[in-house]
């Protein structure tokens, strides 16, 4: 008898996240409830020897693993992630804090303030990307280029602080 | 150590993901544009920090807090960020509260375990307490939310 174990780490802002694994071969549907911030659960279920289930679970884990690798931070994987970001902030708070501390006038920053700056930076990146896209589309291009960004910075008041700061 | 503050760049992969999610499908971003956006983001952090710090200093505080940052956003003419930032802050604060409870419980556990190292019978009690604690956490959170409301 084969035992399949998988680790599931899913965090949602809601109070509970429901994970459903469908074992099509066996037509078994298993539901597990995970409480908020108690992210990882090791699931062990006795499974009669099949070829597809491990692949299916493997692919799910792989896609999750790929996402975690892309983010470049170990925050979203495994039990140790401690839900510290819970998909709220994609940017690493430690790096943001390090940036903030390069300002000699800044002595201490609360965790909340670091988080808000991280979130604001995210919104800023979205905003500048969308505004630069307008200029790319004007040039009938589908690829955003450096000059589109320069145009956006020049044209939009909120981006005035960026003038002369980029290489 | 970084030579300039701007050398501390945010991870490229994350920046790329944020850009891609903001733009419609089929749109690409050149490497130079990506690098420039990443740099702009770093400058943004520094500018926002500096602005927020001014508000903190005005209030004679040495620690930046969330309010300072929100005030800085207004000052920088990014009022459109204020609503989503406030919402995100609420969710974040709730998450932090949950974490505190977990870490406090862990601390209590450690103390108990040190005491009960020689006492085997207590181990069984701990297991029961684990389950009770899980329930307490859920209840505790519900209570706190009620208190807030």
From TrEMBL, chain A:
Residues 50-67 have a biased composition (Basic and acidic residues). It is found in: Nucleus. GO terms for molecular function: DNA binding; protein heterodimerization activity. Residues 90-153 form the Transcription factor CBF/NF-Y/archaeal histone domain. Residues 71-83 have a biased composition (Low complexity). InterPro entries: CBFA_NFYB_domain, Histone-fold, Transcr_DNA_Rep_Reg. The keyword Nucleus applies. Keywords: DNA-binding, Nucleus. One of its GO terms (biological process) is DNA-templated DNA replication. Residues 46-87 are annotated as: Disordered. GO terms for cellular component: epsilon DNA polymerase complex. Accessory component of the DNA polymerase epsilon complex. Participates in DNA repair and in chromosomal DNA replication. Component of the DNA polymerase epsilon complex consisting of four subunits: the catalytic subunit POLE and the accessory subunits POLE2, POLE3 and POLE4. Interaction with POLE3 is a prerequisite for further binding with POLE and POLE2. This is DNA polymerase epsilon subunit 4. The lineage of its organism: Eukaryota, Metazoa, Chordata, Craniata, Vertebrata.
UniProtKB/TrEMBL annotation, chain B:
Component of the DNA polymerase epsilon complex consisting of four subunits: the catalytic subunit POLE and the accessory subunits POLE2, POLE3 and POLE4. Interaction with POLE4 is a prerequisite for further binding with POLE and POLE2. Heterodimer with CHRAC1; binds to DNA. Component of the CHRAC ISWI chromatin remodeling complex at least composed of SMARCA5/SNF2H, BAZ1A/ACF1, CHRAC1 and POLE3; the complex preferentially binds DNA through the CHRAC1-POLE3 heterodimer and possesses ATP-dependent nucleosome-remodeling activity. Residues 9-73 form the Transcription factor CBF/NF-Y/archaeal histone domain. This is DNA polymerase epsilon subunit 3. One of its GO terms (biological process) is DNA damage response. The keyword Acetylation applies. Keywords: Acetylation, Coiled coil, DNA-binding, Nucleus, Phosphoprotein. Signal peptide: none annotated. It holds the Pfam family CBFD_NFYB_HMF. Residues 124-149 have a biased composition (Acidic residues). It comes from Stegastes partitus. One of its GO terms (cellular component) is CHRAC. Residues 93-123 have a biased composition (Basic and acidic residues). Residues 93-149 are annotated as: Disordered. Accessory component of the DNA polymerase epsilon complex. Participates in DNA repair and in chromosomal DNA replication. Forms a complex with CHRAC1 and binds naked DNA, which is then incorporated into chromatin, aided by the nucleosome-remodeling activity of ISWI/SNF2H and ACF1. Does not enhance nucleosome sliding activity of the ACF-5 ISWI chromatin remodeling complex. Its main location: nucleus.
